[in-house]
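Lab meeting prep.
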Amino acid sequence: MCLVHLMSSADLATVGVGPHPQPWPLDPRFDPELLAEGDRRNVVDRYRYWRLEAIVADLDERRHPFHVAIENWEHDLNIGTVVRNANAFLANAVHIIGRRRWNRRGAMVTDRYQHVLHHGDIETFAAWCVERELLVIGIDNLPGAVPLEHTPLPRACVLLFGQEGPGLSEPARAAATQVCSIAQYGSTRSINAGVASGIAMHAWIRSHAAPPPDPKSATSGTGDGPG
C-alpha cells in the first residue's frame, strides 16, 4: 500500500519546511519566494530554499562520470523511474534513445535537476559515446551476459537499458562493449528497467563513489545555510 494514501491532507501540508525566519540569508543561491513562503520540494535539507539553478550548479560540480541510457520505442513508462534513480545516484546524464517524448510522471520532478539528452537512434548514441570515450555497458539477462555482481564496471561508462518487454534491441546489443545480467532467484522472467537501473547504478556507486555529503548540511564556503 502506498504510504501517501495513509497520510491526511494536513500531514502532506507539513512536508518540507515553512517560511524562513528573519533575518534571511544573503547568499544569492537562496530564492526569496521560497524563503517567504516555505519550501515543499522533494529535495534534501541542504538544498532547502535554494533556487533551482543553484541546485543544478552545485550538483554539476559533483556529478559522477557514469551515464545512463534507455531505449524508448514504445513510450516506456519506466523512464521516469530511471531518471529519478539517476538523480539519486548523481549520474552525469540520462540518454533517451528513440522517441523524444516520455512519461515524466515517474520522475517526480527530478528531471529538472538532471541533464537529459535525446538521440534519435542507437547509431547516433553510439557515435556520441565513442567521441567521449565512454564504454557502453548493456544491462539485460541475455545468453552470454556476465553477472553484474561479479563484474567491475568501468569508471567512465554508460549503463544501457532496453525497452520494457523485449529488452535491449539488436542494435543496442551490438553497440555494447559488454552486457551484464542481474541475478534473480524467483519465478519471474525479468525485472523492469526502472528497478534494474537502480541496481546497476548502485553497483557503480559501490565500486567508485565516495560517501555522499551530509544531506542536512549546506555546502562549504557560504556560512549562510538554511536555519
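Slide two material, second protein:
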Amino acid sequence: MNGAVPNRADRSLAPPERAPDGGDWRIMSTDDDDNRGRRERMVREQLERRGVRDARVVAAMRKVPREDYVPAALRRQAFDDHALEIAAGQTISQPFIVGYMLQALAIRPGDRVLEIGTGSGYNAALLGELAAEVITVERIPELAAAAAERLRRAGLDHVHVRIADGTRGWREEAPYDAIVVTAGGPDVPRSLLRQLAPNGRLVMPVGRAGEQRLVRVRRTGRESFERELLTRVRFVPLIGAEGWRGDGTD
C-alpha cells in the first residue's frame, strides 16, 4: 500500500482508541512539571553522560514529550533506559539510541530528512525540531494514522507521514540530506542510497537479530559511498522488498 496520510479529518485514518495489541492508544498530552523533570533527568543521565551532547539534539529531546508517544499504560516507563513496545509488534527505541542516531546524522536546520519506520511518531517529532522538512514512511496503516495525528497536534506541519514499503524510500520527494532507518535490515537498501543527496548521511542498523551494528553511510559521489560501523544495537526487522521477508528472514 502506498500513499500519504491526509491532514484533513478522514474516518478511515482516524487514530484508534485501542492499539492493535489491545492497549490504550488514545492521544493526549501529559506534558506537566513532573514529566518535564523526568525528561530532564533522562537527558542528563542517559544521553549527556554517555556522549550524546550535540546541543540541538539535546534541546529537542528535552522539548518533545516522549510520554505522549507511548501507550497510556506505559507512560510511567517512557523515560526508562530501554525500548518499549507500542503496537503491531513494533517498539520505540530507548532514549540513548534515539539520541545517538540523531547525533550521528548531523542534521542541519535547512536539511530535508527521510525517516523509515514512523512507529509512534516520536523520532519524527524530534526530526521535526531539527530539520526543515521530514518525510516519514510507515508500512503499517494503523501506526501511520496514529502518528500523523500526534504530529498534527504537536503543530509539526512540516513532518509528512507516508504509507509505503520503507525499504524503497520515498522517491517522489528525493533527494534527502539525511536518511534514518529505525529497523534492522540485511544491508542498506540500494533505493535508499540512490535517494541520498550529495554529501548526504544515512544511519541504520544492519544485520540479523542479535548481530546488528549501526552503520553510517555518506554519499561522496554519484556512485561512491563511505561506510562506517558504529555501535552494536538491537532493532525490530526491516520488512520489505529490499529488507527481510515478513517472517524476518531473507
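Talking points for slide two:
DSSP finds six helices and ten strands in the chain.
The beta strands are 3-4, 84-85, 91-92, 112-116, 133-138, 159-163, 176-181, 196-206, 212-219, 225-233.
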